[in-house]
Design goal:
Helix 3 packs across helix 4 and helix 12 packs parallel to helix 14. About 35% of the residues lie in helices and about 10% in strands. The N terminus and C terminus are likely disordered. It contains 15 helices and 17 strands. The chain is α/β, with parallel strands linked by helices.
């Protein structure tokens, strides 16, 4: 007689899962078979969380080790995934096959029509379809599976226990003093920043900071913010950067002017009548090089002479692997540089916390732009982050992730050296992504070939400013323009640890061979595939 599920949630907790343990073999084999059937049939959808060992064992009347062994077997086979803190889930790649639709049987009154059998002829090969995107190598996201759940939870609890009653009232638009004090100490210690807590304004990330600086808070929330711009355009930006930031600025009516980039970073000598410049000096995004020391000094001199300001996007400044991280540009002149940072790369983009380190003259205007109350950054999250920093847990997490991401980058470089030695990784050893330089004219085809391999990534062209000129004589005189480059932007931090090897294998399978010259107007991945097959 088959054993059936029994609801014993009152005793053990957990979730209900109906399974029939039947058939030959041990209970472990029967449980594994029942789970496979449930996944295969679609009754357990991809991503479904399974009950804990103890709960399911009590429900089925089997030993806990029986459930643990069955789960482990299915994880090894790829039916399930298991991560610490997330439990055991049905694997995302597991999909039930489409059920074939059976033709209807003719009714008794239906007239039979003789069917003429077609003459045998060869069937054309089915057109290949791109694989499902199972390897996420897009830039911009850390390894979210490595979020320090235990440390964050402990910090949250301590912060909540110690919080004064005023915390639960309207929030200060400047941010909680506990966080501003912790940030002032940490940024001075880790990034060389020169500031005081009262010159730090907490925000919900880099995009929020841009809106506050150039939109005056208008449009963020009805009735909040002064609507008066703190800064005005035109704004000089690097010729390669995030399109989202350019679009955000354009929506605020700010014209952006691209600065060419070379091996020493942005050509700040091309700055003219702009009122401000936005740079990523520690690790240019996305091309990967630091701003040369002479240019760091030159852009500060420009800001002093012009009465302008430098916006420093310190998006991944802690992650340098070949040497100590370059200090913040802000340290050269705290009255001419606005440093903007967040925890989107160091912790998670889900923790919507960032900060602006401001020159004294801008603090009042930014606070007016935010409004009288904190409407964006959770006060409790601010306290938790402050506790995480003060306790040392944040430093330990950053150091741990620095080692992990360095190993990821080293594995990427080694895989390319073995499989595609003609592909160069540009930039310094830093950050959460790398740019792979491709043979001219192959970027679009390589992106399509990556899609065919189930790899999600971006081509370098996606980040190029639309007004960047290709020729050597662009606006501003000789050499003001810069040639377009072919490349792939690979986010090696994005996949979880267990998925990274497969992602690298798929990536290498999509790269063009050394002799590939695919015209951009004919991005046919079959050309790349054919050349790869010949090379193999």
């Amino acid at each position: 007689m088959a054993e059936s599920w029994v609801n014993s949630g009152e005793r053990t907790g957990g979730t209900d899962l109906h399974l029939e343990l039947s058939g030959p073999g041990s209970k472990r084999a029967a449980l594994a078979r029942a789970l496979r059937d449930a996944v295969r049939s679609g009754r357990l959808a991809p991503g479904t969380r399974l009950p804990p060992y103890r709960s399911l064992a009590a429900d089925l009347g089997v030993a806990r080790n029986t459930v643990a062994d069955a789960y482990a077997e299915l994880v090894a086979e790829g039916w399930l995934t298991a991560r610490q803190g997330s439990g055991t889930r049905v694997a995302e790649q597991t999909r039930p096959p489409h059920t074939a639709v059976r033709p209807k049987r003719p009714t008794a009154n239906a007239t039979r029509v003789p069917v003429r059998q077609p003459s045998p002829r060869p069937h054309p090969s089915p057109r290949p379809r791109p694989a499902a995107r199972v390897h996420d190598l897009r830039q911009g996201t850390p390894d979210v599976s490595a979020f320090p759940r235990a440390a964050w939870l402990a910090s949250y609890r301590r912060a909540l226990q110690q919080a004064p009653n005023e915390v639960f009232g309207p929030g200060d638009p400047a941010g909680r003093p506990e966080l501003r004090e912790a940030l002032a100490e940490y940024l001075a210690r880790a990034r060389g920043v020169r500031t005081e807590p009262d010159r730090i304004v907490v925000c919900s990330g880099f995009a929020h900071a841009l809106r506050l600086l150039f939109g005056g808070g208008a449009g963020l929330e009805k009735g909040r913010g002064s609507g008066r711009q703190v800064l005005r355009g035109p704004l000089a930006v690097e010729a390669y950067g995030l399109p989202f930031h350019r679009e955000l600025l354009a929506a605020e009516g700010v014209r952006t002017v691209p600065l060419p980039i070379d091996e020493h970073g942005a050509r700040v000598d091309r700055l003219t009548r702009e009122r401000a410049v936005l740079l990523t000096p520690a690790h240019q995004f996305p091309t990967g090089g630091p701003l040369h020391p002479e240019r760091r000094a030159a852009v500060v001199d420009w800001a002093r002479a012009r009465g302008g300001v430098v916006l420093e996007d310190d998006y991944d400044g802690e992650f340098r692997y070949d040497r100590r991280p370059v200090g913040a540009l802000q340290s050269l002149d705290p009255e001419r540089v606005i440093l903007i940072g967040s925890v989107s790369k160091s912790l998670s983009p889900a923790v919507r916390l960032g900060w602006m380190v401001l020159p004294e003259r801008y603090v009042g205007d930014v606070l007016a732009a935010k409004g009288e109350r904190e409407a964006w950054a959770s006060v409790l999250d601010q306290l938790a982050l402050a506790e995480l920093i003060v306790s040392g847990s944040y430093d330990r997490h950053v150091r741990r992730m620095r080692q992990r991401y360095r190993a990821r980058r080293d594995r990427l470089v080694a895989a390319l050296a073995e499989r595609a030695p003609h592909i160069e990784v540009s930039g310094v050893a830093a950050g959460l992504h790398a740019v792979l330089r491709l043979p001219p004219g192959t970027e679009r085809s390589a992106v399509k070939a990556a899609t065919w391999q189930g790899v999600a990534l971006d081509g370098l062209a996606e980040f190029r400013h639309p007004d960047a000129t290709d020729g050597p004589d662009g606006p501003g005189g000789p050499d003001a323009g810069m040639p377009a480059r072919d490349g792939l932007v690979v986010g090696y931090a994005t996949p979880s640890e267990h998925a990274y090897a497969a992602a690298l294998e798929a990536l290498c399978g999509a790269l063009p061979p050394a002799d590939a010259q695919v015209p951009p107007q004919h991005p046919n991945p079959s050309v790349i595939t054919e050349q790869l097959n010949k090379r193999a």
